[in-house]
Every structure is written in C-alpha cells, then in structure tokens.
Amino acid sequence: MSIEVIGISKTFGTFKALNNVSLNFPDGELVALLGPSGCGKTTLLRVIAGLEHADTGRIVLDGADATDKDVRQRRVGFVFQHYALFRHMTVFENIAFGLRVRPRRERPSEKDIRAKVNRLLDLVQLGWVANRFPSQLSGGQRQRIALARALAVEPRVLLLDEPFGALDAKVRKELRRWLRTLHDELHISSIFVTHDQEEALEVSDRIVLVNKGQVEQIGTPKEIYEQPATAFAYSFIGSVNEFRGRVDGDFVRVGDEKLRFQTGTFKNGQEVVAFSRPHDTEIVANPQSEDGVSASIKRILGTGAVARVELVANGEAREGRKEFFEVEIPGSDVQSLGLSTGQHVKLRGRRLSVFADQNGTQAAS
Amino acid sequence: MSGDSTSLLTAVRDANSSLITAANEWTAERAKTLDQIVSSLLAEADQQVATSIDMSGVRAFDTFGAWQLARIARELKSRGREVTIIGLQSQFAVLFDAVQKSSDEADRVQPKARLEYSGVAAVGEALTRAWQNFLLLLNMLGAVSVSTLRALLRPSEFRLTSTVHHLDRVGWQAVPIILLITFLIGAIIAQQGFFHFRKFGADDYVVDMVGILVLREIGVLIVAIMVAGRSGSSYTAELGSMKMREEIDALRTMGFNPIDVLILPRVIALVIALPILTFLGSMSALYGAELVAWLYGGMSPEIFVARLKEAISITHFKVGMIKAPFMALVIGIVACTEGFKVKGSAESLGLQTTASVVTSIFLVIVLDGLFAIFFASIGM
User: Fold this and answer.
1) A13 Cβ partners below 8 Å, 6+ apart?
2) Does A337 lie in the same domain as A271?
3) Which of B94, B95, B96, B92 shows the shortest CA–CA distance to B83?
4) Phi, psi of B106 (to 5 degrees)
5) Which residues of chain B neighbour A97 with C-beta distances below 8 Å?
6) Which one of B91, B247, B256 has the shortest CB-CB distance to A84?
7) Which residue on chain A is closest to B242 by alpha carbon?
8) Contact at 8 Å (CB) between B316 and B211?
9) From A181's CA, which of A217, A321, B44, B93 has a CA 20 to 30 Å away?
C-alpha cells in the first residue's frame, strides 16, 4: 500500500517536532526513517499510524485520505521499541489478541485463529514458545513475537519504531538480517525508525534522512552514502573528517592552513565546511607541505590490507576538544610513508565535499 | 597612528547588493570614531539586500575591531540580510571567529528573572498549571461519559470481566482494612466524646454526635481517603506503567479505545465499590463507638441503640451514601488522568502517583464541602 504524507507539521509546546514534511512511500518497500534522537522521526511514524494528530497536513493511504481516520480504521501494524507485549497473556494469546477482539461478524473461527497464529509463530521461527509468557523470553524473541502480533491483523502497512533499539549488538545484527528476509517474503509496505545509520544502510530499500523536523535527503542507501546532499547528510552517514574554514580561491582556508578543493561555486570569504571520507583522505608525510591541514598521528591500527590511522589536529582545541581525524590507507603505505605514532603530518582530501556552513543546504561536491 | 581623516568604513549600495569596504586600523585606539561610524551605518541600513563586507584593506585588527565587525554582521543578519565577510586576513580571522562565537553565546544567555517578580511569576505559573490540570480532568470526564453511553447502547461491548476483576480488587479486598480503620475512628470519636461531655453530664449526647458525624461525614470521608490512597494510586501506577511500556499505544493500534478497555471498567468498579465500603465503614464505626460506650462510658448497648434511634434519621444515612459515588467518580477520574500523564521514565511514574493521591484527596474534601453547602440549602 502506498503512503503519502503531505505537509505535516507538529508542535509540542514550543518545540517544533515536524516542520512541513511531505513524503511519498512507494508500495512494498522497506523504508528507513533515519535521524538523530529528537529529530521528529518517531513523531512522524506515530502520525502516520494515527497515534498522534498532526497540527496541519494530511496522510493519504492507498490514495484515500486517512487524516481523520483513527488507528483502527487505518489498519496499520505497529511494533514498539519496548515490545509492549501484554504480560498476563501467553505468547499465543498475545498474537491471537488482535483477532479475538474483532466484532463478532469479522472475527475468524477459533480454528482459523489457531491455524493463523501457528503460521505466524512458524514465520518468526518461534513455534516452540507458544505457551510461554513474555517474561520468559529474551529481548530478541519478544520483539519477534511483537512483530508476529502486529502481522496477525493483516495490516496494510507495517510501522516499526526503533524495533532493535533495546537489544544488544549481536541480536540486533541477527534480527536486522531476519527482518530483511521477512520483508522479502511478505512484501508489505514497511517503515522503520532508527537512529543507527548502519542499520538503515544495511536493511532498507530506501532511506529518508530526517533532521530537526525536516527531511534532509531521500534515496537508496547507496545514493545516501555516496552522494550526500547536505552537510548534515554527510556528517551523519558513515565516518567522516570535517574541516571548517573560509573559501579562498581554490582553497578552503582552515586557520592558517589551506586545503585545495576541486569544484563548487562559493564566494570568496564564505564560511564553509568541507568533508572527506576516511578512505578519501590522504596523508602527506612532509609537515611543511603547502596543501593540507596539519595533524599528528595518535594511533595506527591494523597493519593488514587496510590500516586505520587516527590523528588529532595540531591547532587550538575547539569547544574544549581537539579535532579528531580518521584516515584509511593501504597497509603498505604505512611503511612507504614511514608513518609512526606522534609524527607531524598533513592531511588533505582526495575528494573534498564542500558545503556552505550556515544552513548546510547548498551542495557542491 | 595614521590620520583620523582616512575612512575606516565606506558603504556603497546599489539595487540589490551592498558593499561595505573597511580600511586602516580597526583597533581600540580608534574606538570612538569606529563606534560612531558603525552605529550610523547600522542606523541607515534598512533595506534587505545581500551585503558583503570587504576587510582586505584593514591593516590592524584587535578584539575591539573584531567585536565591531561581529556587531555589524549580527545586526544586519537580524534584519534579514545575507552577510558575507570577505578578504579578512587569516591572522585576523582567528580572532574574529573567537569574538563572534563568544558574542553569539552572550546573545543566548537568558535574562535573569527579577527577584521582586519571581513570586508573582510562580503564582501565575501555578495557576496556569492548575487550569491545565482541570481541563485534563474535564476531558477525561467527558471521555468516560461518552464511553458509558457507548456501553449503554451496546452492552455486549462492555468489559464485564474486567469490571468484576477491579471490583474484587478495590471493593472486596479493601473490606478488612476499611472495617478496621473506621472501627478505630468510631471508637476514638466516642472515647473523646465521653471524656469531654462527661464534664457537663452530657453523656447521652455522645451517641448523637457519633451517629450524625459518622453517617454524614466521617464514614464516607475516611473511606474515600482510604480508597484514594489504596486504589487510586494503584490505578495510576498500573496505567502509568502500561503507558511507559507503550502497551496503551499497542491497544490502540489493535483497534481498541483505551477509555473503553482500561478506564471505564476501573471507574465503574470504584463507583460501585465506594458506596458499599461506605456503608460497611459507617456500620463498623458505629460498632466501635458502641463498644467504647459500653466498656469506657458505661452505657449499655441497649441504651446506645435506643438513643441512636432517637438521634439519627434516614436522612443522615442518605446524606453520606449519596456523596459516595460522586467521590468515587472523582477518585477514578483523577487516578486515570494522572496515569495517562506518565511519560517514559520511572521517575515520572512516581511523581504522577503522588500527584494522583494528593489531588484526589484534596478534591474529595472540596467536594465534601460543596455537598455540605448543598445539603444545608435544601435542608437535608
């Protein structure tokens, strides 16, 4: 089912959680709503579900306006971060609950309910826990049961609110993969909220990047990673080295030093922020080199095919801490450049992406 | 110091852009001139055009100059202009960055509340909060009323099992403690009555006092306060913890109205249980008073009962019983509203539970006062 969000705004007191958000979620895709905590992604999900009412804007489900419909009529399945299973019911009863409480006319027979719940339990690979209580299950198992419960009512759309947020790293990874496979089987339109960029990149068909109540960028994980549209997108996705300074001809002037950048239309003297991915950053062993920002090597990790070099800026500490850089270079370069801990070097970007510093919307890479 | 006549600042303006060119020394030595020039520039600048500030001609630059430059940038930006600073030499740029950052921070400092107004402000805030809480209570009362109507129209959807379950918890299981407390209260009132009335030889009137006091006021008040502390708090805690674990949202996504499923059964159970508990409590209090009268006051049970028959009428009993369901409603609505107010943390659960008990006891006593006025005016 397609989901369309048109001009949604929502304010809590004086805090603007969503600011005129418009989105279109295509049918059958698994979409990640990605953003830092407090950016409004969960609010957006709750507005789509009907758990929260937007101040302005409309929600269109399957071409029909659902703004004034309540949760029940929207037929959404919702999976909560803390599972929200009913504690006094067994796993079986939890999953059957949504079916049992339907009005008598629509309620399936007891036999059908039984068959359906068993099918769902098999789907989440937990057939053997049917008669246990939620408290007897592990976190990962509980979340799978919660998902089965959400699916039991045959929702037209599945909404997941940080579904793996409360789980430990290993279970998280496992469930992530499992969710992907499950989605490939069911092909139900799904939206999941996460603040974990790795999770979003790995699982979703499409990522919606949200910041401060606004959509920053929409795209496939590949697009988002390789062509970040804004400074925020660049710094939020993947690890990145950041240089702040002013434009000076073909260079970005960072303090007393300068970095050459290739393309972009900026006025001289404009404040900009330049980004470079660790694998696109070069180390120049000569600290007297013209081009580059000086830093000193703090640690060299891994001497295999790829070595990771951590550096700190030589300049003044900003906001109480020295700037930190990370560079990935072929392991052989460590020897050929003769790098060692404590050494003073210069850093420069092979592909420097430069954005205007003020609002971070003007792109040039 | 090179001549004062050389210009520090010139502004050239055309239709859609403005160029400000700075030159010479921007230092504290030229403070007075610089300040005047900047002030007059800012006073004239009213058009919303993009502005560039060319600093390349500046030969000396100190904190004062940096502050003036930051001031121009800030003032123009606040008037909706786009400001770009160009050509600032890099050794000056560092200083300018530091000054601009600290002056931006200074802008964000909240003005301190003035001491002489803080009391008034606190009263105002408390009043708004109280009003908001009152609106929330009304909202809940409305929702429960609608839910009751729905249940009346479609009795099959009323959650009887849940209601009976809560009736057991707030009614049946509360009986022992209610009996004990009211028994003790009745006994204490009687004892105090005998102790003081005896001085005037008015022993007989102790029975009048106990009878009327217990049936009209003390019975229902003590029971309502006990129930608010015992059941009201547990309602708030239950609903609050369900809210914390998102179970209420889960119910809603499955097509339930939380008011129908969670709140109506609880409120109905209280409204049924409280009159019954009030009746039991009043009887227990009278029994306690009778025992004290016999053992301490030397008044035989026969005389106590005979005197009680003369002293009280069915009206006194009615007054107490009529109040009970209304108090139950107040307790139920307050407890459920507070429960729904719980946010994600355990701390907030504790706060709301306390608020629930305090508010409901307060409102129960206020309601009792209103009833006293009402009954007095209709002569009951």
Assistant:
1) none
2) yes
3) B96
4) -60, -35
5) 254
6) B247
7) A84
8) yes
9) A217
Q: Is B252 on the interface with A (CB under 8 A)?
A: yes
Residue A33 maps to which CATH number? Answer: 3.40.50.300
Nearest-by-CA chain B residue for A98? B254
- Find the helix or strand (DSSP H, E) in which B304 lies: helix B301-311
Instruction: Give the minimum alpha-carbon distance from A176 to chain B in angstroms, rounded to a whole number.
Output: 22
List, in order, residues 6 or more apart from B204 with CB less than 8 Å away. Answer: B307
Residues A243, A223, single domain; the answer is no
Asked which of A209, A233, A257 is the last residue of a domain, the reply is A233
Residue A95 CB neighbours (<10 A): 30
- Is residue A355 within 8 A of residue A234, CB to CB? The reply is yes
Give the count of domains, chain A.
2
Which pTM does this prediction carry? 0.74
- Which of B254, B260, B343 would you mutate first to test chain A, the one with the most A CBs within 10 A? B254
Q: What is the dihedral of CA A239, A244, A247, A248, to 10 degrees?
A: -110
Pick the last residue of a domain from A201, A233, A265. Answer: A233
Q: Which domains does chain B have, with CATH numbers?
A: 3-107 (3.30.750.24), 133-377 (no CATH)
Q: Are strands B17-26 and A15-25 parallel, antiparallel or unpaired?
A: unpaired
A256 pLDDT band, cuts 50/70/90, is: confident
Residue A243 C-alpha, separation from nearest chain B C-alpha, in angstroms? 15
A84:B245 CB<8 A: yes
Mean model confidence pLDDT for chain B: 88
Does A237 or B4 have the greater pLDDT score? Answer: A237
Residue A88, chain B, CB below 8 Å: the answer is no
pLDDT tens-digit profile of B318-347?
Answer: 999 999 999 999 999 999 999 999 987 889
Same domain? For A85 and A199 the reply is yes
The neighbour count for residue B123, using CB atoms within 10 Å, is: 10
pLDDT confidence band for B1 (50 / 70 / 90):
very low
CB contact under 8 A, A270 and B94: no
Residue A108 and residue A76 share a domain: yes
Does B110 reach chain A within 8 Å, measured CB to CB? no
Same structural domain for residues A69 and A94?
A: yes
Q: What is the mean pLDDT of residues B40-67?
A: 78
Q: Which of A45, A69, A80, A362 best tests the B interface by mutation, with the highest count of B CBs <10 A?
A: A80
- Quick check: A269 and B250 CB within 8 A? no
Could you give the 3-state DSSP secondary structure of residue B240? helix
Nearest to B84 among A84, A256, A270 (CB): A270
Q: Are residues A170 and A206 in the same domain?
A: yes
3-class secondary structure, B13: strand
Cβ <8 Å between B90 and A71: no
- Residue A295: which CATH number? 2.40.50.100
